[in-house]
Specification:
mainly beta; Outer Surface Protein A, domain 3; TolA/TonB C-terminal domain; twelve-stranded antiparallel beta sheet; four-stranded antiparallel beta sheet; 3 helices; 19 strands; disordered N terminus
């Protein structure tokens, strides 16, 4: 059975001119007001496209500092650092044109080394993980994507079984050939696997938009994304195809 959706990572984008402040909720989804926020970012433009984005909690503690060659397209380039709330270094990653390239290191709160990798074109060519005591331990992936129960096949089955309207396979190739009976819905997968912050990104009309949102809101919890062994929130989008 063909997959009925296209999962897009990091769909959200933003324009920055000079320094700009954005407020984010606990799932790092942009909100309009500070009283809705858990974090905020400050963007420092360096030319027409490049710049630095710093993320803080509402107490003003720096949590991350990321270099971008293109902020609008969210292409990280150079060294990016994440910090624990007490200011200690949590991770240091190196990117080239949006792909991990070069050294990657993460640290325990004690500042003992947790992971040391060397990446080429996103893939680890040297990689070690360490225990809290500093000994070698079993290697595990640095990042894993969130997953619907049963994976893509499980999600496909859920959509077919639960949709009130006939669904159609959709992918980028079909869209490029002129298929238009689809909408795109953005959503977050929280660190606990819940699906909050659902919003229409491309509309197909009220009837089908409501159906796509309903399907997302009634989904079981996903297996959340992981980074360095910890559950983390992530943002995604699903393209729903319908037979009109």
């Amino acid at each position: 059975m063909k997959i009925l959706f296209t999962l897009l990572l990091s769909l959200s984008a933003f324009l920055c001119f000079g320094q700009k402040v954005r407020y984010l909720n606990e799932n790092f989804v942009q909100v309009n007001f500070k009283d809705q926020a858990t974090y905020y970012t400050e963007t420092y433009q360096d030319g027409p496209q490049a710049g630095i984005v710093k993320t803080f909690n509402l107490q003003g503690v720096l949590l991350s500092e990321e270099n971008y060659s293109n902020i609008k397209r969210q292409i990280r380039h150079g060294v990016c650092r994440n910090f624990y709330p007490d200011g200690r270094l949590k991770s240091e990653l190196t990117f080239k044109d949006g792909i991990l390239e070069g050294p990657l290191r993460t640290f325990y709160p004690t500042q003992r080394l947790k992971r040391a990798e060397l990446r080429e074109k996103g893939m680890p060519v040297q990689a070690k993980c360490f225990s809290k005591a500093g000994y070698d331990t079993t290697y595990y992936e640095f990042q894993t994507l969130p997953q619907f129960p049963g994976g893509n096949q499980g999600l496909d089955s859920y959509l077919v079984k639960n949709s009130r309207y006939p669904m159609a396979p959709v992918n980028d190739e079909l869209i490029q050939k002129g298929f238009v009976a689809y909408n795109i819905v953005k959503f977050a997968v929280s660190a606990s696997g819940k699906i909050p912050d659902v919003m229409i990104y491309r509309s197909l009309g009220t009837l089908y938009d409501r159906e796509a949102v309903r399907l997302l809101n009634q989904m079981p919890n996903w297996e959340p994304a992981k980074e360095d062994g910890e559950n983390v929130a992530s943002q995604h989008a699903i393209t729903f195809g319908f037979r009109l």
